[in-house]
């Protein structure tokens, strides 16, 4: 990494933004990112936008990457910007850069990021709703017990 500001990433940016972001993304967004990659790859296959061999190779590699989780112990070292590029690099290693690049057909990284955030937010909201329902059930049960106590 660089200590100057003329090349990417500058050390201060790497230390204060990119390294912490990688940790957050590994912890909270790897599952949504995997789901998005698989869904997009499957859509490209179903719509015949990729050759069957490319689709099969991409989807198999994505499944292997998710199973192996090569990013799990990866520290930020400046050779990639974030988890998205780390997974993209691993996909390229497994199926070749040209084939891996075909997964980007018709999608926007910005849209993917918004989708990841929404997926994570939805999962958290559903957990909170479940907890709220359990709490409400306990309140009702206690209230029913209290009817006979007065």
Keywords:
Fumarase C, Chain B, domain 1; mainly alpha; extended; 150 residues
Descriptive overview:
It is extended, with a radius of gyration of 22 Å. The mean pLDDT is 92. It is mainly alpha-helical and 150 residues long. The chain has a domain at 11-106: Fumarase/aspartase (N-terminal domain) (Fumarase C, Chain B, domain 1, Orthogonal Bundle), CATH 1.10.275.10. The chain has six helices and no strands. 73% of the residues lie in helices and 0% in strands.
Helix/strand/pairing category: mainly alpha
Mean pLDDT across residues: 92
> Quick one: biggest sheet?
none
Termini Cα gap: 71 Å
CATH architecture of the domain at 11-106, by name, is: Orthogonal Bundle
Strand content: under 5%
- Treating each run of at least 4 consecutive H or I residues as one helix, how many helices? 6
CATH topology of the domain at 11-106: Fumarase C, Chain B, domain 1
| Global morphology | extended
| CATH class assignment of the domain at 11-106 | Mainly Alpha
Tell me the CATH superfamily of the domain at 11-106.
Fumarase/aspartase (N-terminal domain)
- Name the helicity range: over 70%
Short description:
Helix content is 73%, strand content 0%. It has helices at residues 11-28, 30-46, 52-68, 83-95, 97-101, 109-147. The longest helix is centred in the C-terminal third of the chain and has 39 residues, at 109-147.
């Amino acid at each position: 990494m660089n200590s100057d500001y003329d090349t990417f990433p500058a050390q201060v940016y790497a230390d204060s933004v990119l390294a912490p972001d990688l940790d957050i993304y590994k912890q909270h967004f790897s599952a949504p990112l995997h789901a998005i990659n698989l869904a997009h790859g499957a859509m490209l296959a179903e719509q015949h936008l990729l050759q069957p061999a490319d689709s099969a190779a991409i989807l198999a590699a994505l499944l292997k990457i998710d199973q192996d989780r090569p990013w799990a112990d990866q520290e930020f070292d400046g050779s990639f910007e974030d988890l998205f590029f780390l997974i993209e690099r691993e996909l390229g290693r497994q199926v070749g850069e040209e084939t891996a690049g075909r997964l980007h057909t018709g999608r926007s990284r910005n849209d993917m990021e918004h989708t990841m955030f929404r997926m994570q937010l939805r999962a958290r909201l559903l957990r909170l709703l479940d907890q709220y329902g359990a709490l409400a059930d306990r309140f009702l049960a206690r209230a029913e017990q209290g009817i006979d106590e007065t």
